[in-house]
Batch of 4 targets.
Target 1
Amino acid sequence: MKFIKTDIEDVVIIEPKVFGDERGFFMETFRTELFNEHCAPREFVQENHSKSAKGVLRGLHYQTENTQGKLVRVVRGSVFDVAVDMRRDSPTFGKWVGVELSEHNKRQLWVPEGFAHGFYVMSEEAEFVYKCTDVYNPNAEASLRWDDPKVNINWPIEESYEPSLSEKDAQGFCFDDAPKF
């Protein structure tokens, strides 16, 4: 596996080595000791799988308690995946990084605790799989507005596919009012 630093040091792109031929492919998607060495020493306690249609924007989610680090990947389709640094003491506080994740590039993204996370579906549909370092806590969840002008994320949104949002995400916090770490 190849571990690639992003503009936010703690957010890491992971590229697997893919072995393929006319029969299909094989790749290793996770190994604890490599992850701990190149990303962060963590234990994953929950894994989730979602399916979304083109134009769906999920996020930007995080939890103020039971904070979750997430190792995310796409097994079908493609998304633009975003992490926003919500850590007050970080040199990249309020900055974001975005990466295309797809079934073709097979990349994963490590999003540490203290980040808001979300994605926009660019393909007809996408299946998104992610491991979490803590369990879901609905009483501590927060949503940062996807279109907050202070964060200014450059989403690759097609004109005919304005984001389809959940009610929770449509009512998300603006960055100045959002809970921070």
Target 2
Amino acid sequence: MNEEKAASHPFAETTISTQPVFSGRMISLEISTVRLPDGRTATREIVRHPGAVGVLALHGGRMIAVEQYRKPLERVQLEIPAGKLDPGESPEAAALRELEEETGFRAGSVRHLLSFSTSPGFADEVLHLYFTDDVTPGGQRPDEDEFLSVELLTPEEAERALRDGRICDAKTMLALYAWKLYRLSGALTP
């Protein structure tokens, strides 16, 4: 829905004021006072995020995944390569960059599958999911504060990791379903 239509929707909330609370390296937090459709006011805590990408990358019929520690969850988990957009960077360029930095695999091309809101109840982050099976191995170049290992998973290993809870994030789950659809029908999206 475009912004003009959203603003005229009967459930639309009108922002009265916004107070910045925190601005960090990856996110910012603000509290907005809004007017509700019935005229009352409420507050909304909103996390602002520059957007992110994830890449379903296949090499030799296996999914390229990274294992890393996720502090908010206090656990290690297995995910598709992913990361935030840099200022002025296109999602496609970010997908190519993140894949190579995190895994060492360089993609000749990527294909956009879909974009989705990760947590629309409190955050404006949109994640762009890409696909590639056109990769060449190379050397990893993770960020200085990233510690991760690369795994190449068969479909059965990926499904087992999902059942075992090693994979528990939405972007990787969506990538697994796209991969399953691809294996069954040759299409990546319905």
Target 3
Amino acid sequence: MANKYIVDSNVFIQGKNFHYDFAFCVGFWDWIEAGYNAGVIFSVRKVRDELLKGKKGDLGRDWAMKMPMDFFLDDAGDAAVMKSYAEAMVWAARDVHYLPAARAKFADVDKADAFLLAYAKTYGHQIVTQEHSNPAKRKEIPIPDAAIKLGGIQTLTIYQLLTTHAKPTFLFKP
């Protein structure tokens, strides 16, 4: 069975603002859609919710609105995911390494991180995020570190995913 990936909102937000600006790199967004059509690349509804908080006219917001709804997998409405979510909340509440503000942010139901982790743990998907492991960090809970502590969840960056699943597409425009 092929790996399946769920993408964190920071990949989309950083992509549209920097690396994969819609003005010159629409191929990235087409690649995401092709990965979805192949049944490999998805995200979760909490990520969609975060993207839709963008201002009217924000191209990332517009893109999220145009994507098929089932690209954004049901997280909060899935009982099995919510069981894993509850386990993540118990872990975060008990992990005294992180400051209370970091644990509170992680527990915020409007934030996607814990839902990504719960979905990945429940269904074995890998999380694509721009966050990096930083075990010394205490002011926030990086997804890769939470994935390690929760066990059985793999993370990778968008660049690692592109290396595995993309062909070179950049052409010079004179």
Target 4
Amino acid sequence: MNIKDYKENFDKIVEFFKEDISGLRTGRASTAMVEGVMVEAYGSRQPLKAVASISVADAKTLNIDPWDKSLTSAVEKGIRESGLGINPVNDGKLIRLSLPELTTERRQELIKVLHQKLEQAKISARKVREEVRTVIGTEEKAKSITEDDKFRLQEELDKMVKEYTDKVVEIGEQKEKEINTV
């Protein structure tokens, strides 16, 4: 049994966390903010990135170009209903999103959401740790590893969990700085 076999599970947690917080708005425009906005298209709900190209025009503006121009109003409606607090401007071809300045209250809300996502990532890491501990216990009961091996593996596992938790916290702190940067 090798603890490093479970490294991939922890890598997935970190990657998911990075992707999850990329949608949190900082002071500059990012396509990740709207990629997941659901749009009613062709009789079903689809993410915006599946029906339009999204580009950053400048630090405060996103351009959305629906591939099928008949979906322009559906895309506009999806953005309005998304709860992002952004008012889309439709010029017939493109939809422009001008991002308003973040208020202090909105920054605080975003930081609360960030902390919730951070806690979820930590919980996921602890779940993986418990699964691995169960495997270690089972291995010891089956006599395939010694009691000394069990303690050594648990110590290795705890070090790995701490390393990944620290990594997630560091990413969270960087994102919090971005949100607070005016």
